[in-house]
Amino acid sequence: MNIVENPYLTLFQKQQAYQFEVGNTTVKARLQKLNRLKAALEVTYRSQIHVALKKDLNKSITETDLTEIYPIISEIKHVKRHLWHWVKNQKVPTPLSLFGASSYIKYEPKGVCLIISPWNFPLNLTFGPLVSAIAAGNTVILKPSEMTPHTSALMKTMVQDLFDETEVALVEGEVETAQHLLNLPFNHIFFTGSPAVGKIVMKAAAAHLSSVTLELGGKSPAIIDQSANLKTTARRLIWGKLVNCGQTCIAPDYVLIDKTSQDVFIDHCIKSIEFYYSQLPETSNSYGRIVNQHHLNRLKSLIDDAVAKGATVAYGGNIIESENYIQPTIITNCNNEMRILQEEIFGPILPIVNFRNTEDILHHINANHKPLAVYIFSDKKSFIKTISNNTRAGTTVINNNLIQFNNHHLPFGGSNNSGIGKSHGYYGFKAFSNERAFMKQHFKGISEYVTPPYTSIKEKIAALTVRWF
């Protein structure tokens, strides 16, 4: 489709014009916008957010507060503490060969940005990147997932209440809507979702040479060494695996453990599940649901495929289709022929893979795409060092999981197939900023003594410059 016929072209052009109206992108204006968003999340819309996420994902009030609302508010507070420092011109050295000049970097807004967010944490992963985009002084069009309609509709109401569409606008719709938006020449695109769709987004961005941040996913392993405390490890891993019913990009996707430790570990996992969600998780107010029937069927097919190829369901496996419910499930005797070890699970299923030695672990991880996260459970420094130094990943956490997301001082993101670019805190601010280089000539420098015509004296000056400067 011709860009002139694009239904969102007018909105895009309005946001372009807003960028250059005096006062719109000052630090004061950015902080005012963030304060409005913070108040809306904390007070004005908080109860409505609880209701919407309960309807879409059966999220409890507590889980919504901790995984959807808190991360955004925490990000806003972090930005407010540091933004004045981040936006200052950053002085950098000027080489002696350019004597007479000074240099600095100015962080300026990239311009009009597109944020395409997923369904699993619809509020967090829409408004979280928005905080960084606003902090950097951009205008933004948001495209949330159609799979969580109640939350998307509420976010649209919030955006219309908090911002003029020239500042921030939210567009609802399905694939066709995303395609229309991706046809526009955005200055930056921030996408959270699967690697498959990430490739489509990156291809569309390439047509306009738009920069991208791609927060993707992958097979994040949890590696359990014999020195680890199995009870503590199981408790932490089960929490991390079952938050949001396992529909988390940084959830531990599978476990690598020594065969001799497996049974004890599984026993602790079962006890942890029953402690968190009772022996009947379907009755627990703390346990979520799969987003829709399509994803429920996908997860069921992963279990069926694994069992057909020799895996054992060590715990769970119960499914209630009318409720989009899958019981927390642990699967053993897994091998690489099974889809459950080839595809990102994105659900409450935990496959267990046995290893004989450290070489087995490294081979298994490095034979696949770089994971978004590697989780190492061990009390041995040498083991932790070996795994860390011989694998590549977006993030690594030792003796826990998921907690890295809430440290705004760390860059968050993957590597290659698990993501491109970083977000959160200063790294999110940089992702949405252009580092504009500035130089100022104060008085006559060396370069002006070596302009044509090239005499023998100038030849000597040039030779000295090459040798000494």
Automatic annotation (TrEMBL):
CDD domains hit by this protein: ALDH_AlkH-like
* GO annotation terms (biological process): aldehyde metabolic process
Q: What sequence ranges are listed for the domain Aldehyde dehydrogenase? A: 17-435
Q: Name one GO molecular function term.
A: aldehyde dehydrogenase (NAD+) activity
Keywords, A to Z, come to: NAD, Oxidoreductase
Pfam families on file: Aldedh (PF00171)
Which named protein is this?
Aldehyde dehydrogenase
User: What organism does this protein naturally occur in?
Assistant: Paucihalobacter ruber
